[in-house]
């Protein structure tokens, strides 16, 4: 598997120079602006605004009544199903998947900007290691025999001075926080025209369920020969994009008030207990049939054949429940990993988290 990592980018900067960084960040900013505009246009859709305004009113009512209960999992599932009914004009996918893709792309752009910064810092740290602790230009360069010293030495000193100055005085700009500051300023300036953006956090439960479904499908494709869509084993771009959007819009605290993580994990735990009880009941029923068949067995009939025939229904039901348990465990694991990734991504924007 060929991947692009910090080591690869560092080698590129070592070959082409640090001037590439500013150009790459400029491209990232333009692309991020385009994606954020697409995200804003998505939120401005009348159908989206109608659904989100309903959830926002429910959230405000819960707060006014002083309720601190978690956002119901069943409500999030029903909300996601309503969203999926809204198809795009192209008909290729639904609006919920489109929103997930846009947020993932924004997260990937931010991750690339962080990689550029990390590679730049790594390259500078490698260059600094070659400088002595007490560096003086006067004793660094000596005039070779047979060469006119003044011009050559002065030119060499100037070049070395420029190189060392670039290393020691190179600014370490935090591109991620710069992006947050710029986009947050734009959102505040147009706040009166973007009132529909205040309910963005209400779509996150539905988006997380959509992401879990898409992630499991991507992992399943990795094990298939007939590839019908993109396959992947990990995707943290959605978590980074989600944390970035919440930070820019100042809705991190409001999203935490939904307690969606606790609600989803509690629902998965309840479903696991329900499956265990069903499997235990079927197993008891199966054992009872086997016991009756053995007691009625005679010298002239085979009890093994009779029990196999009698327990076919139970065996089929157990297989179905085992498949359901495996699928439930996958959903639970993917949702937990998503929240771990979101919590980690929020640390990138911790200085910009809304404190209201």
Put simply, the count of helices is 13
* Share of residues in strands: under 5%
Number of strands: 0
The low-confidence parts are 136-148, 352-356
Question: By helix and strand content, what is the structural category?
Answer: mainly alpha
What is the global morphology?
extended
Please give the alpha-carbon distance between the first and last residues.
Answer: 44 Å
Largest β sheet strand count, sense and barrel closure:
none
Overall residue-averaged pLDDT value: 82
- The gyration radius over C-alpha positions equals 30 Å
Which range best describes the helical content: under 10%, 10-25%, 25-40%, 40-55%, 55-70% or over 70%? over 70%
Order of helix and strand elements from N to C terminus? HHHHHHHHHHHHH
Question: Layout of helices and strands, plus pairs?
Answer:
Layout: H1 6-16, H2 19-43, H3 46-64, H4 73-84, H5 95-128, H6 149-168, H7 175-189, H8 204-221, H9 237-249, H10 252-257, H11 260-295, H12 303-310, H13 312-346
Helix pairs in contact: 1-5, 2-5, 4-8, 5-8, 5-9, 7-9, 8-13, 9-13, 11-12, 11-13
What's this model, at a glance?
It is built from 13 helices and no strands. By secondary structure, it is mainly α.
Describe this structure in words.
- It contains 13 helices and no strands.
- The longest helix has 36 residues.
- The C terminus is likely disordered.
- By secondary structure, the protein is mostly helical.
- Helix 4 packs across helix 8 and helix 11 packs antiparallel against helix 12.
- Helix content is 71%, strand content 0%.
- It has a domain of 235 residues.
């Amino acid at each position: 598997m060929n991947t692009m990592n910090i080591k690869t980018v560092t080698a590129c900067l070592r070959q082409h120079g640090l001037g590439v960084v500013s150009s790459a960040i400029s491209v990232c900013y333009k692309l991020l602006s385009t994606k954020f505009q697409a995200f804003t246009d998505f939120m401005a859709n009348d159908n989206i605004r109608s659904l989100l305004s309903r959830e926002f009113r429910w959230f405000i009512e819960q707060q006014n009544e002083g309720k601190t209960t978690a956002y119901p999992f069943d409500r999030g599932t029903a909300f996601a199903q309503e969203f999926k009914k809204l198809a795009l004009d192209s008909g290729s996918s639904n609006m919920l998947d489109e929103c997930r893709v846009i947020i993932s792309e924004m997260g990937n752009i931010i991750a690339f900007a962080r990689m550029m910064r990390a590679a730049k810092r790594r390259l500078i740290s490698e260059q600094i290691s070659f400088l002595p602790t007490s560096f003086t230009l006067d004793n660094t360069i000596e005039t070779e025999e047979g060469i006119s010293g003044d011009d050559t030495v002065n030119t060499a000193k100037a070049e070395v001075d420029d190189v060392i100055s670039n290393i020691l005085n190179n600014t370490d700009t935090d591109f991620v926080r710069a992006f947050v500051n710029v986009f947050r300023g734009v959102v505040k300036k147009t706040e009166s025209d973007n009132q529909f953006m205040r309910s963005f956090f209400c779509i996150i439960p539905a988006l997380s369920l959509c992401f879990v479904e898409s992630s499991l499908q991507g992992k399943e494709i990795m094990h298939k020969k007939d590839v019908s869509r993109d396959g992947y084993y990990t995707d943290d771009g959605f978590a980074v994009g989600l944390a970035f959007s919440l930070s820019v819009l100042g809705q991190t605290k409001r999203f935490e008030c939904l307690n969606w993580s606790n609600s989803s994990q509690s629902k998965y735990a309840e479903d696991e207990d329900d499956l265990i009880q069903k499997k235990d009941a079927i197993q008891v029923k199966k054992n009872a049939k086997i016991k009756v068949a053995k007691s009625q067995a005679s010298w002239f009939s085979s009890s093994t054949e009779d029990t196999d025939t009698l327990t076919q229904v139970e065996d089929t039901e157990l297989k179905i429940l085992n498949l359901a348990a495996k699928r439930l465990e996958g959903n639970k694991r993917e949702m937990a990993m998503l929240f771990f990734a979101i919590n980690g991504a929020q640390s990138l924007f911790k200085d910009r988290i809304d404190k209201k």
